[in-house]
Amino acid sequence: MLLQGKRVLVTGVLTPSSLPFAAARQAQQDGADVVLTSFGRALRLTERTAARLSPKPAILELDVTRDDDFAELAGELKRREWQLDGIVHGVAFAPAEALGGAFLGTPWEAAAMALRISAYSLKQLVVALEPLIPAAGGSVVTLDFDASQAWPGYDWMGVSKAALESVVRYLAQYLGPRRIRVNAVSAGPVYTTSAKGIPGFSTFPEIFAKQAPLGWDARDSDPVGKATVALLSDYFPATTGEIVHVDGGYHAVGAARGSAAGDPAE
Ligand SMILES: NC(=O)c1ccc[n+]([C@@H]2O[C@H](COP(=O)([O-])OP(=O)(O)OC[C@H]3O[C@@H](n4cnc5c(N)ncnc54)[C@H](O)[C@@H]3O)[C@@H](O)[C@H]2O)c1
Fold it and tell me: Domain coordinates of the chain in residue numbers?
């Protein structure tokens, strides 16, 4: 059990399709004590989803747009005398006017909201919770979508993911001496509540399924859960500032599977 004896805080669990849910479930299966965060109206859904986990984890409040919430979350964990060995950052949001082809007309306020919730929040979360991570160190994993290229309609969320990848590297730089590793899992497209809110998203799964060397199933979040747990575990002791692609290998190839002469898939 990779996470036996470790406590992991997982943000961003909304429904059973949420990628952070896959991480939480896998972490429990690997022996971790899991605690979740949620906020506002999402809390009710998170409660219902958490009931599918065994044991049902505690859910603490965290709206990443409220600065006070970070200190209150840290305070609550401290009151419970809970140390954290791992943190999963699975929070993202962009307003409709920052997505779906609106890129050129997106006002700063909408772009700023996407960047704050989807990238800056990682820095805030880690800084707030750093005192709860033991001196021996810990592991932080965030959930990313490949920001090395532009995607149709992903717009300011794409820019936010580019920022997130950079935040990962800077946190890795500043927190390495504290033995805190910070990495990203760059996932292929998975049908989740957030994903369905991205106009044009529905074309991504088919493209990944066709082009990824290993193929890609956009209804299967297990590979993301497993990779996240691996990074949380002691099996990546010398890896930080890294982006691990969990996308069937899509990012690595430039042409469709089966397009080359003699392709074994033909
Ligand atoms: N679904 C995909 O195809 C895909 C691919 C790669 C990466 N990701 C990333 O995975 C992460 C989880 O997203 P998901 O696709 O599982 O969708 P999801 O909708 O299930 O999760 C998004 C979460 O962000 C939370 N959130 C939004 N605003 C917040 C705020 N102000 N404070 C706190 N939490 C807030 C929501 O409550 C929700 O739990 C995101 O970072 C997303 O970008 C998703």
Answer: 7-249
**Does 112 contact ligand 1 (Cβ within 6 A)?**
no
163 CA distance to ligand 1 middle (Å)? 16
Rounded distance between C-alpha atoms, residue 99 and residue 174, angstroms: 32
pTM of the model: 0.97
Which is the catalytic residue, given 154, 191, 210, 235?
154
Kindly report the protein residue whose alpha carbon is nearest to atom 39 of ligand 1: 12
Cα–Cα dist 241/38, whole Å: 26
CATH class of 7-249: alpha beta
Cα dihedral 100→103→106→110 (10° resolution): 60
Does pLDDT of 240 surpass 60?
A: yes
Beta-strand relationship, 138-144 and 59-61: unpaired
Peptide bond into 213 cis (omega under 30): no
